[in-house]
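Below is our example:
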Amino acid sequence: MKEVRFKPHIGAHDLDVKLKHISEFIGAHDKVRLTVVFRGREMQHRDLGMKLLGSIRERLVAIASVEQEPIPDRNRLVMTLVPKH
C-alpha cells in the first residue's frame, strides 16, 4: 500500500503531480491511501478536505475505485483507492 499526503490548500500544479504519482501506483496494482492533513485552524474547514478527495475521486474514476470512503482520523481525512480490474 502506498500513501500520498495532501494539505487542504494545495496548488493546481502540485495536485497534478501527485495525481500522476497516484496513477503510476495504481498502474502497478498497488492500493493507495490518500491522506489530507489539517493543521491548526484548518481543522475548522474539513469540508475543503472532503471537496479535495471528491475531486481526486472524479479524476481517477476511470482507473481506480474507492475501497474506503473518506473518514476522519484526528487531524486527518483518510480515503483508500484500489485499481479497477
